[in-house]
Specification:
By secondary structure, the protein is an alpha+beta fold. It has one domain (6-96): Transcriptional coactivator/pterin dehydratase (Gyrase A, domain 2, 2-Layer Sandwich), CATH 3.30.1360. It is built from 3 helices and 4 strands. It has a 4-stranded antiparallel β-sheet with strand order 1-2-4-3, with helices on one face. It is elongated, with a radius of gyration of 15 Å. The structure holds the ligand C[C@H](O)[C@H](O)[C@H]1CNC2=NC(N)=NC(=O)C2=N1. Residues 53-55, 69-73 line the site of the ligand C[C@H](O)[C@H](O)[C@H]1CNC2=NC(N)=NC(=O)C2=N1. GO terms for molecular function: 4-alpha-hydroxytetrahydrobiopterin dehydratase activity. Belongs to the pterin-4-alpha-carbinolamine dehydratase family. It catalyses: (4aS,6R)-4a-hydroxy-L-erythro-5,6,7,8-tetrahydrobiopterin = (6R)-L-erythro-6,7-dihydrobiopterin + H2O. It comes from Flavobacterium sangjuense. Its EC number is 4.2.1.96.
Amino acid sequence: MSLLTTQLLEEALAHVPGWVYADKSIEKQFVFTDFTEAMAVMNKIAVIAEEMNHHPEWSNVYNKLEIRLSTHDSNGVTTKDIRLAHAIEIIVKEIRNPEPILLNNN
Ligand SMILES: C[C@H](O)[C@H](O)[C@H]1CNC2=NC(N)=NC(=O)C2=N1
């Protein structure tokens, strides 16, 4: 898998807010309301990462989660990392803003 050029990487990062390039990786820090919310996000990310066979390097302390993504074989950032970053954004939105439960009380 080929590395993204600087220009393509910048364009891709413009669509995943908060993700920055550092150390041949892309990274973002998340702050959740508490540990339970952080763990819920991590569990969902774990499932999608396993399906993609692309795994985050991450660190969690209480409600904080730092995530770093890179493609080891390519020694840098590829479209696989961008795709996982997008998936992570969707998961975080789902957990922070869950679908309302529709009550059948009419
Ligand atoms: C052997 C296995 O397929 C590789 O190690 C996979 C697993 N998960 C991975 N995860 C990430 N983030 N980058 C990789 O290059 C990678 N490679």
